[in-house]
Amino acid sequence: MAIRSIRHFGVSGRRILEAILNGEKIETDGLRKMVDWRTKASITDIANAINGRIRRHHRDMLRYHWEHMGYLEETIEELEKQIEQLLSPYRKEVELLDGITGVNKAAAATFIAEMGVDMSVFKSAKHLASWAGVSPGNYESAGKKNE
């Protein structure tokens, strides 16, 4: 059975989980081939942590979670493609926003989705900042400042 690769999971972890899910007994020699040399834990510690404790039920539960993570990853990739398509008419605006320190393409996409690109709908820069919730508040009552 081919197990989908989870992109946000370490290479060593993927290899070990795939071996566990396939019911393999993980020997230290095989483990050395699976584990990336940068892994901080020792091969012996890893082998001791997994061997002898994982039963069929555990493998089944791991497989369900692994497959669900794969499904979620595929869904996220599809959504990211849709966002890219929807942003295509706004390439120039995305590039301009992405040029601002602290703003990446994901933030630019959020800004465009939330505020649009026509700033004439806002009376002033202060109005836009207030609408976006980024203007500083002045919470004062009876001469007492509240934070």
UniProtKB/TrEMBL annotation:
<dbReference type="InterPro" id="IPR003346">
    <property type="entry name" value="Transposase_20"/>
</dbReference>
<protein>
    <recommendedName>
        <fullName>Transposase IS116/IS110/IS902 C-terminal domain-containing protein</fullName>
    </recommendedName>
</protein>
<dbReference type="GO" id="GO:0006313">
    <property type="term" value="P:DNA transposition"/>
</dbReference>
<dbReference type="GO" id="GO:0004803">
    <property type="term" value="F:transposase activity"/>
</dbReference>
<feature type="domain" description="Transposase IS116/IS110/IS902 C-terminal">
    <location>
        <begin position="95"/>
        <end position="146"/>
    </location>
</feature>
<dbReference type="GO" id="GO:0003677">
    <property type="term" value="F:DNA binding"/>
</dbReference>
<dbReference type="InterPro" id="IPR047650">
    <property type="entry name" value="Transpos_IS110"/>
</dbReference>
<dbReference type="Pfam" id="PF02371">
    <property type="entry name" value="Transposase_20"/>
</dbReference>
